[in-house]
Design a protein that fits this description.
Structural class: alpha/beta
Number of strands: 11
EC number: 4.3.1.15
Keywords: Lyase, Pyridoxal phosphate
Radius of gyration: 20 Å
Cofactor: pyridoxal 5'-phosphate
CATH architecture of the largest domain: 3-Layer(aba) Sandwich
Number of domains: 2
Number of helices: 16
Oligomer: single chain
GO molecular function: diaminopropionate ammonia-lyase activity; pyridoxal phosphate binding
Largest sheet: 7 strands, mixed
Protein name: Diaminopropionate ammonia-lyase
Shape: globular
Strand order of the largest sheet: 1-10-9-8-11-3-2
CATH topology of the largest domain: Rossmann fold
Order of helices and strands: EHHEHEHHEHEHEHEHEHEHHEHHHEH
Length: about 400
């Protein structure tokens, strides 16, 4: 299914708060933070030229975030960045002066960080980033995981020294429980979703994601004409759509948000024209996208900057994992997790459907950009779906910054 954006806010300028959060100055600050990370490297932009020829478009480029900062997901850009920013700000307040990034490992700042606890709910990848950020700065982390998070993903978070707190129910249940306990204990919630009265920190998380967009624009020979980005609560989709709208202005691409059909909270929000919570049904294999309530900040951006919303099915998600693992002639193989290739799955579904293809103005000149948002963050699940063993991650040797 595809739904063109018909909201009252469509094509209106971004809210000034969001334009500041996702604009060039903020993105440059993110890149400055990344520049001091010991294992930072620009992630690959892979041209799928064979696939583009096969489906009849000019180009398909995929930004492979499976290589990001040793965490295997774009989420590495958001949670850890927000934690670092919050620690520096808290230190500045306590010391009565501006504290620069260069002071992060000073005794004064470390003393402040040791008294801080950051907390979040997660499907796996965001919690890993928050936990890594806390370890980097010397803060404590409490990560709330619902019953659908696999043991492998829980273990991957726990290795950063985080306290793991199980929650019965869905991701949205864990978000509410994390907020409740954090308020009672005086912890700082570092969430990638927002709700009334809680917007700034999710904005910092989204701000971290602008780094991948800036990198991709520098890597591409020409800006894209079409972008397909998968959505959970909407953070990555909003960050990409918002930054592209600011960076490219009138030349911005046609932007489509791709939801799992079983957890289509952004699609249904677009249909209703306002944020809605959808019913919890059968779980989706797209575990990182299984969210039933959108982020309010993300919706505020997407209602203005997204052109269309669509859904993909379970078979689309597993099919694209296998297609990327066993590419057409000449294309590079890419390891994509259950949620990683969903944007590309949406793009191929749109191209194959004459009605959707026409509605999105896709033709032989179209240049498509997508993001592989995660590698094999659950290696067992990846092997089960593809029949292939993912490459082993480099052995972790300790903290880095």
């Amino acid at each position: 299914m595809v739904l063109l954006n018909a909201t009252a806010d469509y094509r209106q300028p971004l809210d000034p708060r969001d334009a500041e959060t996702l604009g060039p100055a903020a993105a440059e600050e993110v890149e400055r933070h990344l520049s001091v990370r010991e294992n930072h490297a620009v992630t690959p932009l892979v041209a799928l030229s064979g696939l583009a020829r096969e489906v009849g478009v000019a180009a398909i480029h995929i930004k492979d975030e499976g290589h990001r900062l040793g965490l295997g997901s774009f989420k590495a850009l958001g949670g850890a960045y927000a934690v670092i920013r919050l620690v520096l700000e808290e230190a500045g307040q306590r010391l009565g002066r501006t504290v620069d990034l260069a002071e992060l490992h000073s005794q004064e700042v470390r003393a402040v960080a040791r008294e801080m606890t950051v907390a979040c709910a997660t499907d796996g990848n965001h919690g890993r980033s928050v936990a890594q950020g806390a370890e980097l700065v010397g803060a404590r982390a409490a990560i709330f995981v619902h019953s659908g998070v696999s043991d492998e993903r829980v273990a991957a978070i726990a290795r950063f020294g985080a306290e793991m707190i199980p929650v019965e129910g869905t991701y949205d249940d864990s978000v509410r429980e994390a907020a409740r306990i954090a308020e009672a204990k005086g912890w700082i919630i570092v969430s990638d979703t927002s709700w009334p009265g809680y917007e700034r920190i999710p904005g910092l998380v989204m701000q971290g994601y602008t780094a991948l967009v800036r990198e991709a624009l520098r890597q591409m020979p020409e800006p894209p004409t079409h972008v397909f980005i998968q959505s959970g609560v909407g953070g990555i989709a909003a960050a990409v759509a918002g930054h592209l709208a600011i960076a490219l202005g009138d030349r911005r691409p046609v932007f489509t948000v791709v939801d799992p059909a079983r957890a289509a909270c952004l699609f249904e929000t677009a249909r209703a024209g306002r944020p809605v919570t959808i019913a919890h049904g059968e779980p989706t294999v797209m575990a990182m996208l299984e969210c039933y309530e959108p982020s309010l900040v993300a919706w505020r951006i997407l209602s203005r900057a997204a052109d269309a919303f669509m859904t993909v099915d379970e078979v689309d998600a597993t099919g694209i994992m296998n297609r990327l693992a066993r590419p057409v002639s000449g294309d590079q193989a890419i390891v994509a997790g259950e949620s990683g290739g969903v944007g590309l799955a949406g793009a191929l579904k749109a191209i194959a459907d004459p009605v959707i293809k026409a509605a999105l103005s896709i033709d032989h000149r179209s240049r498509i950009f997508v993001v592989n948002t995660e590698g094999a963050t659950d290696p067992g699940k990846y092997e089960e779906i593809t029949g292939l063993s993912p490459p082993r991650s480099p052995r972790r040797t300790g903290k880095e910054l």
